[in-house]
Design a protein that fits this description.
Layout (H helix, E strand, L loop, with lengths): L9 E3 L2 E2 L12 H11 L9 E3 L5 E3 L4 E2 L2 H8 L6 E4 L12 H12 L5 E6 L2 H5 L9 E6 L7 H7 L5 E6 L16 E5 L11 H14 L3 E5 L6 E5 L2 E5 L4 E2 L2 E2 L8 H12 L14
Parallel strand pairs: 1-6, 6-7, 7-8, 8-9, 9-10, 10-11
Antiparallel strand pairs: 2-5, 3-4, 12-13, 14-15
The structure holds iron/sulfur cluster.
Length: 283
């Protein structure tokens, strides 16, 4: 399904349901969305969200699978695409079986024309993956605060050919990052009601470290806390800041896979070239 996520082309959710795992999950947008779809009667979403003991919306921990969403979705794509799997769950959640993970990996291996982006907070489980991952499976970990930094070591221990970090929502300064064997970094602020703010200096520090380690950087957004109230077509609206750091967009991608080259062209054509940081940092 076409998506608004800037660093991919398509998002498919062959599984839904989760549990909060770290501070980055505190304002999980997927819970609200899943609750709405559950209330609307969508079968895939039944039983995944409830009100917890504090009377707040929360995941139940139930994972619902709908593998055809991915297999048929991929079959419908006519061009090489970048595909983000599971924005409404975590592929490596404890209630996902090893057989189900094998199913994903086989599907990815058998469709090499696409690039699959698999992002997890469960780094312990990827460290246990005892298999060669296909070249077109990019594996990423979420790092939102210093307490998540150990996830980068878990990622490093995997056999993924492209390893990436999603530093979103960035909720504190991460300090010095070990970017050895990291191929790509995405950064973004938090979206949604009562979103936490992101200090520009935290972002500058990541940019500088990516530059010095020659790791491509994709700066996605400043987040809702940095949006400004403006009058647009007669209505008062919150308008997001353009995703620039000190006057430049950072929209870099790793690798020259045809799906990535296509995405790179699309992204670059939406921005003014003169404002772009170089889009290739690795030969
Ligand atoms: S891992 Fe993702 S989907 Fe699961 S609770 Fe955290 S933010 Fe939400």
């Amino acid at each position: 399904m076409a998506t608004k996520i800037e660093w991919t082309d398509e998002t498919f959710n062959p599984q839904v349901g989760c549990n909060r795992y770290c501070k980055g999950c505190d304002k999980c947008y997927a819970i609200r969305m899943a609750n709405r779809l559950q209330a609307q009667g969508y079968v895939k979403y039944q039983g995944v969200v409830h009100k917890n003991h504090k009377d707040e919306l929360d995941w139940t921990g139930k994972i619902n699978f709908a593998p055809k969403v991915l297999s048929e979705g991929v079959r419908s794509l006519s061009t090489p695409s970048m595909i983000f799997i599971n924005s409404m769950s975590d592929t490596f959640h404890r209630n996902v079986s090893d057989d189900q993970i094998d199913w994903y990996i086989n599907l990815i291996k058998n469709t090499p024309q696409h690039v699959y982006q698999v992002l997890t907070k469960r780094h312990e489980r990827i460290a246990q993956l005892d298999m060669e991952l296909p070249e077109n499976m990019w594996l990423g970990v979420s790092v939102c605060s210093k307490s998540d930094l150990k996830a980068i070591d878990g990622l490093r221990s995997s056999s993924a050919k492209v390893k990436f970090l999603s530093l979103e929502p960035l909720i504190e300064d991460l300090g010095k990052l070990n970017l050895a064997d990291v191929d790509w970094v995405i950064v973004g602020g938090e979206s949604g009601p009562s979103a936490r703010g992101m200090d520009p200096d935290w972002v500058r520090s990541i940019r500088d470290q990516c530059l010095s380690a020659r790791v491509p950087l994709f700066f996605k957004q400043w987040g809702t806390a940095h949006a400004e109230w403006q009058i647009v077509e007669g209505k008062r609206k919150r308008v997001k800041q353009p995703p620039m750091i000190d006057g430049k967009y950072w929209l870099q991608f790793p690798t020259d896979h045809p799906a990535v080259n296509r995405k790179r062209r699309d992204v670059i054509s939406t921005y003014t070239r003169s404002e772009l940081a170089p889009y290739r940092v690795r030969a």
